[in-house]
Design goal:
Blueprint (H helix, E strand, L loop, with lengths): L2 H5 L3 E3 L4 E3 L4 H6 L3 H4 L6 E3 L10 H12 L7 E2 L2 E2 H17 L8 E4 L2 H12 L5 E6 L3 H9 L3 E6 L1 E2 L4 E2 L2 H7 L4 E7 L11 H13 L3 E5 L20 H4 L2 E5 L13 E5 L2 H10 L2 H4 L4 H13 L1 H25 L13 E5 L9 H8 L2 E5 L10 E5 L4 H19 L1
Parallel strand pairs: 3-16, 7-8, 7-11, 11-12, 12-13
Antiparallel strand pairs: 1-2, 4-5, 6-14, 9-10, 13-14, 15-17, 16-17
Helix pairs in contact: 4-13, 5-13, 6-7, 6-11, 14-16
């Protein structure tokens, strides 16, 4: 990597923390995480949804307290089980951020959202039942449906020239008497769409009309750019809430994915009880105390940190948009409305290999392969732009150089 990346340093101050947006490659590799250790040192990783930023000070302090006090026993927080501690933090955040009133009794913490998706599909459907999934999609959703022997019903996200949308007429054609579940990802991964109130109401009304359970993955809800607003699906009324299970976590927005803390929020007690008839509580496990304390600190104390991160991500998103439009217009994408992920359409490059393989071989960049999000998307890649500006500029420079050499 070029020397300007190794030497780069750009800190942003908030009222609670110094946020490091610089960390050089050697420091990132020393973390021993998957992102910076999957490839050799000459490849810039831009794939897994992991930000290259130091966590907020309150999160670090919560973790250090556990270590300092050697507090590794069975936990209580405020006289309650640790899972109630995180449930109440989620309730507070949903009310303050979105005006959504959630009962903590309907919030079930667990270790991982993929685990939760498996449990929900097993609870609310049978083998060979239909599960609707927007495509392209987060790859574990597809794996979950296939592994549990359900039928994947693909609802394409269509490019309308300005953003990716779904067609209610196409959705209507997918459903039959064995369709049981709609898996919603909002904000959507990988397209970065934030669905509007009208879109969500249409989906909710469709679920009511066809007696569907909606698994609503809202893990990217805090990562919404100006001009858009995240709306929890279950906040749109009691009938929609009665068939919605919301999945969420602080792991993406506060950069703590390895701490293994997530949750499911059931829209009603009846829905929760129906789930537990199929999936015993002990089978879902629980989050570890480090993840719990870090999550509560994130949601209760770290909004200034996240505000500063979002300012940086907005600049990074716009840098990608402006540079590619000027220097590599064949690579098309719509600026995401949320997330730090860009869904890049490379089909105009006329590649003889997948776009992922082309950029790995010729630019030494490790993107997420488009075909893992949809088998028909081999000419797409997903770019993670949650990194320093010098590293992002190096990624863009390498992309531009590779595409120009390809056209010669």
């Amino acid at each position: 990597m070029q020397e300007d990346i190794k030497a780069s340093q750009s800190n942003i101050m908030t009222s609670t923390d110094t946020i490091s947006f610089e960390l050089e490659q050697s420091a990132l590799q020393a973390r021993r995480n998957a992102k910076w250790n999957q490839y050799d040192a000459g490849v810039i990783p831009a794939f897994v949804a992991d930000m290259d930023f130091a966590v907020a000070a309150p999160i670090q302090a919560a973790i250090e307290r556990i270590v300092r006090e050697r507090d590794y026993g069975y936990p209580l927080r405020n006289g309650e089980r640790a899972d109630r501690f995180v449930a109440h933090a989620f309730v507070r955040r949903m009310k303050s951020r979105y005006g959504w009133e959630v009962s903590p009794d309907l919030v079930m913490p667990l270790a991982d959202l993929v685990q939760g998706t498996y449990a929900l599909i097993l609870a609310f459907s049978e083998p060979r039942d239909g599960v609707i999934l927007q495509t392209p999609n987060y790859p574990p959703f597809r794996e979950t449906i296939q592994t549990t022997e359900r039928q994947l019903l693909a609802l394409p996200m269509r490019d309308d020239g300005s953003r990716h949308v779904f067609d209610m007429a196409e959705l209507q054609k997918l459903v039959d008497q064995r369709t049981r579940i709609f898996v919603l990802c909002n904000p959507q991964n990988p397209t970065g769409r934030v669905f509007s109130r009208d879109e969500l109401l249409a989906l909710g009304e469709f679920a009511i009309a066809h007696d569907l359970i909606v698994i609503s993955d809202e893990i990217h809800s805090d990562l919404v750019f100006p001009g858009q607003q995240h709306i929890p699906l279950a906040s749109l009324g009691p009938e929609i809430a009665a068939r919605t299970v919301t999945l969420n976590s602080a792991t993406k927005s506060f950069n703590i994915p390895g701490l293994r803390c997530a949750l499911m929020a059931f829209g009603t007690e009846a829905l929760r009880n129906r789930f537990h008839k199929r999936i015993p509580l002990k089978l879902t496990g629980s989050a570890n105390i480090v993840g719990v304390d870090a999550t509560v600190a994130a949601w209760d104390e770290c909004q200034p940190w996240l505000d500063a991160v979002m300012e940086h991500l907005l600049k990074a998103r716009n840098r990608v948009k402006d540079v590619l439009a000027a220097e590599a217009p064949e690579i098309r994408f719509h600026a995401p409305e949320a997330t730090y992920l860009a869904w890049l359409d490379c089909s105009k490059l006329g590649l003889s290999t997948s776009a992922f393989q082309f950029f790995l071989n010729h630019a030494r960049i490790g993107f997420s392969a488009g075909e893992t999000f949809d088998p028909d998307c081999a000419q797409f890649v997903r770019l993670n732009f949650a990194t320093s500006m010098p590293i992002l500029d190096e990624i863009l420079d390498r992309m531009i150089t590779a595409t120009r050499q390809h056209h010669r």
